[in-house]
Design brief:
Elements: E1 3-9, E2 24-30, E3 38-46, E4 54-57, E5 61-62, E6 69-70, E7 81-90, E8 102-105, E9 119-120, E10 134-142, E11 146-156, E12 158-163, E13 166-167, E14 184-190, E15 198-207, H1 209-212, E16 229-238, E17 243-247, E18 253-256, E19 259-263, E20 267-271, E21 290-291, E22 293-294, E23 302-304, E24 310-316, E25 319-322, E26 328-344, E27 351-357, E28 359-360, E29 366-367, E30 382-386, E31 393-395, E32 402-410, E33 421-428, E34 434-438, H2 441-457, E35 458-459, E36 461-462, H3 474-487, H4 491-503, H5 524-533, H6 537-542, H7 561-573, H8 577-597, E37 613-614, E38 617-618, H9 643-650, H10 655-675, H11 679-699, H12 713-720, H13 726-742, H14 757-763, H15 767-775, H16 782-787, H17 819-826, E39 829-831, E40 840-843, E41 853-860, E42 863-871, E43 876-882, E44 887-893, H18 899-903, E45 910-912, E46 915-920, E47 923-930, E48 933-936
Parallel strand pairs: 14-23, 20-30, 40-44
Antiparallel strand pairs: 1-2, 2-6, 3-4, 3-5, 3-7, 7-8, 9-22, 10-15, 10-18, 11-14, 11-16, 12-13, 12-15, 16-17, 18-21, 19-20, 24-33, 25-26, 26-31, 26-32, 26-33, 27-30, 27-32, 28-29, 34-41, 35-36, 37-38, 39-40, 41-42, 42-43, 43-47, 44-46, 45-46, 47-48
Length: 937
């Protein structure tokens, strides 16, 4: 039976507040049988769920495309709900019924739709001090016959809102984190069910958030401004066709309440003795509250939300531990980003303190020392709750979030019991798509750890860690983007963030190391104040005038996120919209690299590249040997304490790294131009790429395959990026394998090349070494951390050293990028560049190491792809699942004589490079490889 399921608009389920006239529609097919392909679809759109008021009918459109279908109905109006459904036809001459309807709603499509005014609840503020959270309220009347109600809300800072005492949404940390001066999101909510005929009340609480709270490793404050502000309007539509708008203005009243501090990083101070019960309900006495002040801000930077909603997710009950030094600790068993829900009963004025951390020290005591690389940690990840004394009280943070497994509890009245504390994971609620298990439980746990690091760091933006810095580091994001797409549907998440990468790109084309930047300020006023007090020239270079790149921006491997992430999203999801939107940004980055390469570096003036010309051009003009770069970053034999010494020695200059990324991004830009039909740019960047590749082979890759003595990373990069000429590739791979063996089957790579090392070794004949490296469990290795009890990925290979010393964040996803090898290498699930988004994909599993079984599933935009194998003494059994409307190329290890058996079912079966290759449509397949024989089922 043919059925259409999983209808999505803009990758979201029933989204509200879209600001596009042509939303993208998509669906999946569910069916019985094999080799099912969609041959046509018909989309209908209606103003009513019953489809009695049809506004668009596509008719029968002959195509096998079920994703990225543009809505082509009448021009959309603001706050308009559109229901849509779809039916399809298949190559088996089946016709489905229409799907169940879904809907989308538009937001405020024109600035003139905003009737509200920006309001500020604070008059004067102490810019150095923590501020109490402003509370805002407005009473209003709803007439009889309310048909629908929408709340359109945003803020400078964070907001949460209530209607008649009930919280209006489960979305958290709204309006999200963007480059606020250019892209401030607003959200739209359906609040019809919250309202009643007669008196109603809107209540709003504002938090400091990313706007003025502590951000980045240096805990920079007032990044965007000194005061928080609110903008919102309720749009009430009545059955008689009338519309009423209640917009924020000077009639809104404001005061303070029990939330006296709400810094995302430092934490909360909540005094429950301050009683404002009923403040968000009608008939509350607000005579002592002050009127809000009107602000002059406009609406030009407002955009409809593109955030995937942040929500509470998994919940954990702790074990209670008394540590050797006598402290009481909660151990939640999993390192998460989120908060603790606490219940307490005590005398009025009792101040309970919760301090959140990732680790116990070697003696078993609570510590934050691993997070103190930027200095002593004070006022960090703490909740201070002062009891009211009225029975059992409950508390959880609202505008703060912490990275933790352990919580130190101080001054709790009575017995500390697990039932009174619940750890709650909080992150962007992305659809989970992939999983991998195998016979080695440490590798299976590695997958879980990587997934948890993604959850802990995908909260609005892709952060490095949820504790010390919480910054959108571009380099970390680009190395993990492919693995992130294995675990979750990250297309909308990255599409939103990449728009901010482009928005914050500097005029010379360079890209920030963090986006939105937390290295420097956005607020010119705050920057000027800071500079008047600063007398450290190095700090001045790190925090230049807003809009100007700092010395730490524009680094190879970090800025390349502008190219690599859009291309990765296109490859994994098949939607070229992100390529179209980001092309100019990607081009500006590559042009920036090309301009930097033409600048001479006096350190290398005597090198051959500065003496030699090819076709009238100086070879050094295609080597990027200028500007600061982070380099490979945190290689296994580099400690945090060594980094400044290394940077001083190299002056932050790593030509082997920067030139390789110069070449790689240029090649990807050429591919992007090809996808978009930009033939002139394609030819231009293809020529540029060939020049960079030539000089890289000439000046970096030696005849014996070595690049930098003793370093694995350059060899990995040269092969993974396709830089080495064909005649040099095997020598480069041989030298890499030799370097791994010389390290006793250990890594010495860092952030940038670690994701590729296993696949590169396997591709060039060293699968046995790749598996030994993967299964290595002594330091440094992936499984060392697992064997030490890690539940997330560590920032440093020695996050907890063999002798128990702590170093760095214990929740950094970068090294977890190896998990893509588990999906694409061991399970063999790989997209095909020519048919991206897994419309056509490869199943090329790899058996090796001590593994006897491996299994992966991936929920693509077309449906479930599954690949598993099990090895016995007699055979290897393979099982595959191919979703409807896709084609898989299956590539199995075998022998020439095995073709006859496979060809019975697969007429196109052939033997290539030691593998039996065949093509399969949708369905489930099983192959058993025996000695000299293959059976297909």
């Amino acid at each position: 039976m043919l059925k259409v399921v999983s209808l999505r608009t803009e990758y979201l389920e029933n989204p509200l507040g879209l600001d596009t006239q042509k939303p993208r529609l998509g669906w999946k097919l569910r069916c019985d049988g094999r080799n099912v392909i969609q041959t046509a679809y018909q989309v209908q759109a209606s103003a009513t769920e019953s489809f009695t008021n049809m506004i668009w009918d596509s008719g029968k459109v002959e195509t096998d495309k079920p994703q990225g279908i543009l809505y082509e109905g009448a021009e959309l109006k603001s706050l308009e709900r559109i229901y849509w459904r779809v039916k399809v036809w298949s190559n088996h001459e089946e016709e489905s019924t229409f799907s169940d309807p879904v809907f989308f709603e538009t937001g405020l499509l024109n600035a003139s739709d905003w009737k509200a005014r920006w309001i500020e609840p604070e008059k004067e503020v102490d810019i150095h001090a923590y501020k109490p959270a402003p509370y805002i309220r407005k009473e209003f009347t709803v007439k009889k016959g309310l048909k629908s109600a929408r709340a359109c809300l945003t803020s400078k800072g964070l907001y949460s809102f209530y209607l008649n005492g009930i919280e209006g949404t489960d979305h958290l940390f709204t309006p999200g984190f963007t480059s606020y001066y250019k892209r401030l999101q607003y959200q739209v909510y359906d609040v019809t069910s919250f309202l009643q005929e007669g008196a109603n009340a809107l209540g709003v609480i504002l938090g400091d958030g990313w706007w003025r709270g502590a951000t980045g490793g240096a805990s920079l404050k007032n990044n965007f401004g000194y005061k928080v502000a609110f903008l919102g309007q309720l749009v009430l539509d009545y059955e008689d066709g009338s519309r009423e708008i209640i917009g924020s203005d000077a009639s809104f009243k404001t005061s303070h309440g029990p939330l006296l501090k709400s810094d995302m990083k430092a934490g909360d101070l909540y005094d429950a003795r301050i009683n404002i019960e009923g403040w968000n309900q009608p008939s509350y006495d607000d005579s002592s509250w002050e009127p809000a002040q009107l602000a002059a801000d406009g609406f030009d930077n407002l955009i409809a939300t593109r955030s995937v909603a942040v929500r509470e997710r998994e919940r954990f009950t702790p074990k209670v531990i008394r540590t050797p030094n006598g402290e009481m600790i909660l151990d939640f068993g999993q390192n998460i980003a989120g908060w603790v829900e606490m219940k307490v009963q005590g005398d009025a004025g009792t101040e309970i303190v919760l301090i959140h951390g990732e680790a116990l020290d070697m003696h078993g005591n609570f510590t934050l020392q691993n997070l103190a690389s930027h200095g002593t940690l004070e006022d960090f990840q703490e909740v201070h709750y002062i009891t009211s004394g009225h029975g059992v009280e409950s508390y959880r943070p609202r505008f703060s979030i912490f990275g933790f497994r352990y919580v130190l509890v101080k001054n709790y009245p009575g017995e500390i019991i697990p039932e009174n504390f619940t750890g709650v994971a909080v992150y962007s609620d992305l659809d989970e798509t992939g999983d991998f298990t195998c016979s080695n439980p440490l590798i299976t746990k590695l997958v879980s750890n990587s997934k948890w690091s993604q959850k802990g760091n995908f909260m609005e933006v892709p952060t490095d860690c949820p504790t010390r810095e919480r910054a959108g580091w571009t380099g970390d994001a680009q190395v993990f983007a492919r693995t992130a797409s294995d675990f979750m549907n990250v297309y909308p998440f990255f599409e939103k963030w990449m728009a901010d990468v482009a928005a914050e790109q500097f005029t010379d084309g360079s890209v920030g190391s963090t986006v939105p930047t937390v290295i420097g300020h956005h607020s010119v006023e705050e920057w000027q104040r800071f500079m008047e007090q600063n007398n450290n020239p190095m700090v001045a270079m790190r925090r230049p005038k807003p809009g100007t790149a700092s010395i730490l921006d524009g680094s190879a491997g970090w800025g390349d996120a502008a190219v690599i992430i859009p291309w990765t999203m296109y490859l994994c999801y098949g939607d070229k919209a992100i390529v179209e939107r980001q092309f100019d940004s990607a081009k500006a980055w590559v042009d920036y690299m090309a301009a930097c390469a033409k600048n001479a570096n006096e350190l290398y003036q005597d090198s051959p590249a500065y003496q030699n010309f090819t076709d009238g051009e100086l070879d050094a003009d295609y080597i990027w040997d200028t500007r600061f770069h982070w380099g490979e970053w945190l290689e296994t034999d580099t400690e945090f304490s060594d980094l400044m010494a290394v940077l001083s020695k190299t002056k932050g200059n790593h030509p082997d790294v920067s030139t390789a990324y110069f070449a790689y991004s240029t090649r990807l830009l050429e591919e992007m131009a090809s996808v978009l039909g930009k033939t002139e740019e394609e030819a231009k960047y293809q020529a540029l790429y060939e020049k960079i590749k030539r000089v890289y082979n000439q000046y970096f890759i030696k005849d014996d395959g070595s690049i930098l003595e003793g370093r694995q990373a350059p060899n990995v990069r040269a092969l993974a990026f396709g830089l080495a000429y064909e005649e040099k590739q095997q020598a480069v791979a041989d030298r890499l394998a030799q370097l791994v063996v010389e390290q006793n089957y250990h890594l010495n790579t860092g952030f940038l090349s670690t994701p590729f090392i296993l696949q590169v070794l396997a591709d060039y004949g060293y699968a046995d070494i790749a598996f030994r490296l993967l299964e290595q469990d002594t330091c440094p290795s992936w499984l060392f951390a697992v064997s030490k009890g890690a539940t997330t990925i560590w920032e440093s290979w020695k996050g907890i050293s063999p002798d128990g010393e702590l170093s760095g964040s214990l929740n950094h996803y970068s090294y977890g990028a190896v998990c893509d090898f588990l999906f694409s290498g061991i399970a063999g699930i790989r997209p095909v560049w020519e048919k991206p988004g897994y419309k056509h994909f490869i199943l090329k599993p790899m058996v090796g190491g001590t593994l006897t079984q491996a299994s992966a599933t991936y929920e693509s935009l077309y449906g479930t792809i599954a690949s598993s194998w099990e090895k016995t003494n007699q055979a290897v059994n393979y099982r595959f699942e191919v979703p409807a409307n896709t084609i898989a190329t299956i590539m199995l290890p075998g022998h020439q004589e095995d073709l006859q058996q496979v060809s019975i079912e697969f007429p196109d079966a052939r033997y290539e490079n030691g593998r039996i290759v065949c093509t399969a449509g949708s369905g489930e397949y099983q192959f058993t490889i025996l000695v000299g024989r293959v059976a297909a089922q």
